[in-house]
Amino acid sequence: MLGRLNTDVKEVTIIGAGYAGLLSAYRLLNLGYAVTIHEKSGRAGGLISTRQTDHGPAEAAAHSIRSSSEILRLFDDLKLDYVAAKTKKKFILRDGKLKGNPLTLWEMFTAGSYAAFKKSDGIYPSLADWAKAHIGEGALDNAITPLAHGIYAAEPEELDQQLAFPRMSIPMGQTLVDKVFKDKTQPKKSPGKSFVMAPAKGMGALINALTQAVQNHPNGRVIFNSAIETLPDVSNLIVTVPAPAAGKLIGSNILSNIKYAPMITATVFVKTEDLNKLEGIGFLNARGEDKRILGVLFNSSTFDHRARENYASLSVMLGGTSNPHILQKADDEIKVVIKEELNRVLNFTGTELETVITRWPNAIPLYSPHLRETLENLEKGWCSQEGRMLFGNYTGEVSIRGMCQTSLALGRE
């Protein structure tokens, strides 16, 4: 979140009714502000939506949330039911096989040695440089690369370590082991155990609950089909649309040029008898695996009520910065790729009952050194004037949980 509000004026205009816009409005309404949201389309939610099919729910983007005390409080306040993951198992696809621990004995020994003895130089140009310095090449290829794929749909070499994974930052002269021990002595920001969860009726239910909360508040309004092409002359403005649209609105070329990872999310429904038994949350690809897909989430293995009895639901993630051209393929071609990969990894031998494909040319902002510089320039430039704010998945927190935590500061400047 960039910028600050003029807290002397209790009226706020928000552009965009995605998760960031709705969450901002919800927080501000609870603090006594009057809020109006302008949304150019006829629906709220942005990337997040849930389509109810005959076989079960199909998510357009995120399918789960990592819990925190703030997320649980938000769900409680919205009276929104959730389901907790039935499993914690996660896998990495390496050498064509699903592995709970993707590292060899030598790679684990190397990672441990580096973590214990390699002292930090302070700032690393990329996440890959950080990994090479503190856990070794093997861990980079088979642990960090899948992590980067799963969160950012990007390669570690493209990501700014401090921006993308700030909790991994190690003070100058300390080792990774030093940092881990020090962190364990610090009080947790969000007490209680964290777990994977989701709204009981799908991620779209969170958007619906926030929208209703804003619309039902006497000081809240959401105006749909309201395209804002020039900035309104108001005391408090929060722009929550994606970076390219935000850049056009505020006249910032550097914001318009923020790069995004393109993605396809495909929810696939199959008969459980047609593939290996699904156990765990899903898998991500290690470096060197087929780049046509980034990974697969086992929806019905993770949560209840995600598929009918004797059926399974999977979310296949394709694209990313390493394979952007797959978005140009027709749906039938995408389905062939999915079937081949499910056959290769999960021995899928049947026919998909239904495949719901969603394309996102600008899915996830690339948390690169360029983005860090851009955010710093915006903080000193357009956002330096009181009453001007930017908030979205490109302003420092890409996750639903992280944005929820960040939004707590809104209106309390």
UniProtKB/TrEMBL annotation:
Q: Which residues form the Amine oxidase domain?
A: 20-395
Q: Which domain of life is it from?
A: Bacteria
Q: Name one GO molecular function term.
A: oxidoreductase activity
The record ties this protein, via InterPro entries, to: Amino_oxidase, FAD/NAD-bd_sf, Zeta_carotene_desat/Oxidored
Q: Which residues cross the membrane?
A: none
SUPFAM superfamilies tied to this protein: FAD-linked reductases, C-terminal domain (SSF54373), FAD/NAD(P)-binding domain (SSF51905)
Name the Pfam families on file.
Answer: Amino_oxidase
Task: Read off the PANTHER family from this record.
Answer: PROTOPORPHYRINOGEN OXIDASE (PTHR42923)
Q: In its UniProt entry, what is this protein called?
A: Amine oxidase domain-containing protein
Origin species, per record, is Micavibrio aeruginosavorus
